[in-house]
Predict the 3D structure of the following.
Amino acid sequence: MNTSETKILSLDAGGTNLVFSGIEDGETIKEYAIKTASLDLEEFLKKLIFGFREVLNAIGGTADAISFCFPGPADYEAGIIGDLENLPFFRGGVPLKQMLENEFGIPTYINNDGDLFTLGEAVAGLLPKTNLKLKEANNPKQYKNLLGLTLGTGFGGGLVSNSNLYIGDNSAGGEVNRLSNPFNSKNSVEEILSIRGIRRLYGKFAHCDEDNTPAPFEIYKIAKGQRKVNKEAAIEAWKYFGKVLGETIANAVTISDSLVVIGGGLSGAYDMFLQTAVDTMNSKLEKVGGGSFQRLETYAYNLHNPQCLADFVENESVQLKIPFSDETVNYFPVKKVGVGISVLGTSQAVSKGAWEFALKNI
């Protein structure tokens, strides 16, 4: 397929606005926005059709596919949206994919934002950038898998292996928000790893009511000493946040064995929590009867710490002689995973992921 002639319709379905876009050759060329708030399901669905129709007309009246992210729970492969917390008129299952295919006559692909964010970073963001750094360091190691995490209003995730999304049998792969808080198993990690979570933590350490706590960016400024409020409380809040994130990543990467990319609005404060998260990943577990062993079989590296990055890309492979032969093979005795922040930016990564997913399936 000549991708320079391919056109995709996409959508950023936010709580305030529905932002429709036309994408050509991987670049957004037209956008159209409508307010999300609707009286009922019928009004909302008509807004979707109207918005896609407007951007379709703006790019010449033809497109090859519709590809976008939408909140879950959902059967994403079938394109059926389940009961949504933020859009309560979605109840009992809404076959959104089939509705749009009937209306526009082109293939429609729906995923969640964590999946498309991870796919975008896998094809054009952190994954290829990291592999390039390894090549530049004359390290033959190359990574093929990526775990993506988004820190924002909620906590989301996705997993890509060999440029393909891992969706799961029930469209529930990578749903990291359902992992339990390691320090309070009655709560999910989303109660910490989110906007409301960092505000709640600051309120706890500053001994103030959660409703009166500042926004996350203000908590970040306080921790950096740019606001003369309770710096110690802000630092403690981000530290606790980092410990929970580190435990969460450790549990997830035990399964994925991959690089990790973090996006979402809170990722901009990474210098307050990322090293704590990586240190937590590299902590030890105790053995019954005494002794300890590494929390992970791999070693985690903060890709934004210059020394950690240098250690990560260092070529520590050795040449092993094959028994009864003059041949040798590469062996990597030190198993490494790197953790970094979005290269593309979350919104751009999601858009890139929507484009790539459509191209793979048209």
Observations:
- The two ends are 9 Å apart (CA to CA).
- The longest helix spans residues 231-256.
- The chain has ten helices and 20 strands.
- The domain at 116-361 is CATH 3.30.420.40 (Nucleotidyltransferase; domain 5).
